[in-house]
């Protein structure tokens, strides 16, 4: 499936178009492989043709073929690595970077070093929001993503809920960024036509002893700026949701759901339209803090192995680096030589499984949440924009992964059907008529936590130079729920931090 930049569309035809001076195009993907964004400014005596490589697009780091010939008729062929930056032109439309590259024919004996302004590592929803924010501010942005597409990790394995800011301590980043992010997200969806729905949310107390906890959530939400909350008696709740059993509920009318994939595609397109470049199947192997910048060694994801340390295709020398790698944030930081180790928080991981209710008419039209539990918000009811219902996630701590995840760790997203046994008992506390055998395994996600079992839930941790002493670096740790809701506000926070660290 091809996706061409809105800056300038290049249509793939059977007769390859000849592209002359100052051709601009962005990225297209074929078979989920990436072709790099480039802007060429070429001397007038060179004809340039770009066509898909004959081999697999992601093999050997070569993603497209660049044919050029001088007017004398001599023809040579070179392979252009996808990561290579070709932005910037000299006098008369001449691109010195391209000229040097064509002249040297990209000697394979030395790993190329590329100077870039901003590198964002990770193309989940938070990384995409940051890329958009920085590119809108006129920054030169490169996004490095180890997977074959955007949002394949945490961002595609959540409830797609727009949170109102109910659960978080007053003054925390989660509280501040969730409330700001919710308003920004609704406005963005309205402006760009992203599918969403303000479904509203009911947080339910199923036992009288839970009512004080419900009141605490009400007070916390109001102190965070969610002023539309109100408590409902059981009769009022029954009028809204006849199938719902509770003694009292907290009503949050501004909670909702969003098509997170459409949202991420829009963020990517917005970033690309303002000059951002994306490199998929590209991983950071190691990095180093130098006196002048931060060096990130990158290569094809498939070529990187934990034992050999080989496969580095390029060294990106960046003024600014944003670590938005989610589950791999601590691992990224540990591989960055020169970053103080004591600035890296402990990492914990909790898997959450979802079960669907196929073949049954959805019993609810609103989001239904129980009282929060250790590590999560309880086994709640979420809806998608098609009206399908899901239950989850539960919380399964993964102690074997604590502080041991590396850049090469592969996470297990399988859903054990036996976990449905616990779901039935939890769900029937508020939905007693759930039929036996009706739940089917759906999907799972893993939360990147910086607090462990039995500990108070940790706040977002967004570190800049004041926290770790490295100019130009922002690390994002523990960006779990409400990360989707908060992403636009997180992006503004990261931009402000980087501008405070002007290189």
UniProtKB/TrEMBL annotation:
Enzyme Commission no: 1.1.99.2
Keyword Glycosyltransferase: no
Pfam families named among the record's database cross-references: DAO
Phylogenetic lineage: Eukaryota, Viridiplantae, Streptophyta, Embryophyta, Bryophyta
Cofactor(s) in the UniProt record: FAD
Keyword vocabulary terms for this entry: FAD, Flavoprotein, Oxidoreductase
Full protein name: L-2-hydroxyglutarate dehydrogenase, mitochondrial
Enzyme class per UniProt: oxidoreductase
